[in-house]
Amino acid sequence: MPAITKWKFAAAAAVAFGSIGFANPGAAQADDFLDGPVTMIVPFGAGGGTDQWARAMTTGSMDVTGQPMNVRNMPGASAVVGWTNLLDLPADGRTLIQASPTPMLALLQQENPPIDLDDIKIVAYVGAFRTIIATQEGMGWDDWDSFVEHLKANPGAVTIGATNSNLVGVATTFGSAGIEATLVPYASTSDATADFLGGHIDALAAPAADIAAIYPVHGQVIINASDLPLSDDFKEQFGNPPLATDIGLEGVSLPRWVGAHPDTPDEIVLRWSELLGEMIETPGVGAMLKAINAEVVFVPAPQAQENYNRLSENMRVATELLR
Question: I need a labelling partner for 206 at 20 to 30 A (CA). Which of 42, 172, 214, 217 fits?
Fold first, then answer.
């Protein structure tokens, strides 16, 4: 099974969900709401990272809940279509949504979003990815310090390509470092990588697994622009680049989160958090996640809700920078 990181939290933290605590989830403990198949909405097309995660998770549903979990792909409008469909369904705990920061950004960029960014109920974080920045070689710098020196002398001269989610990590770290680059948004990491390999952009910001696929043949890794350390394997491969938060900068790790309808009862949200934690630890799910090179970073509710709310605030700031 892949390495699993669990964020511990005090029982008192459950006040974020009213007076309900994990130790006594009430009537939901009997799982009365699980009286039929469960749907996991994926607001992206089939085959992407979130879709792979969801399909891996569903393999443990029967063992843990006694019910099948079906993936329903609902792409469109940068994932807002899937979110809108969730709102049209009953808040009975039979439908969940698995997503990433992409739909969060999409809501911030809409004039009339179907839901406020902070209204979604977060069941858990199941994974996270870091924004790793790799640059072309031979451009006048060979590490983070010389890169910063170059950008301070030439603000905006360096082009960095990434999806909007990863550009949030870039904008957050660069803003705290007082440097400017030209941020180039891409619809997918694969498109950004192709342009980086073709020499059309100076730097690529992407999850560690994507950078690992091209490094060290192409480019040099200069920083882990997040608050989540690299695994030992990636540290060794990338030459142990600095972690943003270790050198006094802002850094954000971007979660793969599971959410529920805003009106879902708190006890059901808490129960689902427990169930997802159990599903991740089943051998079938572990084997699937290992096959897609996924790293599990499990954060249960209500801590996941607090982390999500904090990330949404960072995103509001970063969105203004991205404009």
Answer: 42
Three-state secondary structure of 220-267:
EEEEECCCCCCCHHHHHHHCCCCEHHHHCCCCCCEEEEEEECCCCCHH
Q: Are 298 and 273 in contact (CB under 8 A)?
A: no
Q: How far apart are CA 39 and CA 47, in angstroms?
A: 18
Q: Is the pLDDT of residue 24 over 50?
A: no
Superfamily name with CATH number, domain 4-128+254-322: Bordetella uptake gene, domain 1 (3.40.190.150)
Contact call for residues 55 and 88 (beta carbons, < 8 A): no
The answer to whether residue 225 scores a pLDDT higher than 80 is: yes
- Amino acid identity, residue 31? D
Task: Give the helix/strand (H/E) hosting 270.
Answer: helix 266-280
Q: Rounded to an integer, what distance in angstroms lies between the CA atom of residue 251 and that of residue 314?
A: 10
Q: Where are the domains of the chain?
A: 4-128+254-322, 132-247
Pairing, β 254-260 against β 121-129: antiparallel
Q: Which residues contact 153 (CB under 8 A, 6 or more apart)?
A: none
Torsion of CA 278, 59, 254, 181, to 10 degrees: 160
> Per the confidence metrics, is the pTM higher than 0.85?
no
Instruction: Assign domain 132-247 to its CATH architecture.
Output: 3-Layer(aba) Sandwich (3.40)
Asked, colleague to colleague, whether 4-128+254-322 and 132-247 share their fold, the answer is: yes
Amino acid of residue 79? A
Please state whether 199 falls in left (phi above 0), alpha (psi between -120 and 50) or beta: left
Give the mean pLDDT of 279-286.
94
Q: What is the pLDDT of residues 35-62, one digit of tens each?
A: 999 999 999 888 888 899 999 999 999 9
